[in-house]
């Protein structure tokens, strides 16, 4: 695989067979693999948003993981064009999880992975919940541990 000029990573996102057939429950894990660059090739574990966003029901083959600019994705993205039809990598902080998901959705992203901003977090998965605005999002959202982000 070749890394895109914008610093993208190529990845595969998949679900265990039983989850793909029946949908995810809270605290179920979803796994994705970064294929390139080789120095971060790994299978990562993440958790889905609790009460907003779409459901991961598709296996994404060789889709790009595009870091959002700015990284917190709380407003207009300077690289929004590159997020269209890809998965965005966003950093926690600055606004609600739902707000970040909506920003990525408005830029045409297929999904969002929100990385914890606590880089030493290697075991505590945060429950991403709806904010008090009653807004919705249609794309899936995942939470990634800080050590992995």
UniProtKB/TrEMBL annotation:
InterPro entries, alphabetized: PA_dom_sf, PA_domain, PRADC1-like_PA
PANTHER family: PROTEASE-ASSOCIATED DOMAIN-CONTAINING PROTEIN, PROTEASE-ASSOCIATED DOMAIN-CONTAINING PROTEIN 1
Cellular component GO terms held in the UniProt record: extracellular region
Keywords: Glycoprotein, Hydrolase, Protease, Secreted, Signal
One Pfam family this sequence matches: PA
Domain PA as annotated: residue spans: 65-148
Signal peptide as annotated in the record: 1-21
Taxonomic superkingdom: Eukaryota
Record-given protein name: Protease-associated domain-containing protein 1
GO molecular function: peptidase activity
Keyword Hydrolase included in the entry's annotation: yes
Its biological purpose: Plays a role in the modulation of physical activity and adiposity.
GO BP annotations, alphabetical order: proteolysis
Subcellular location: Secreted
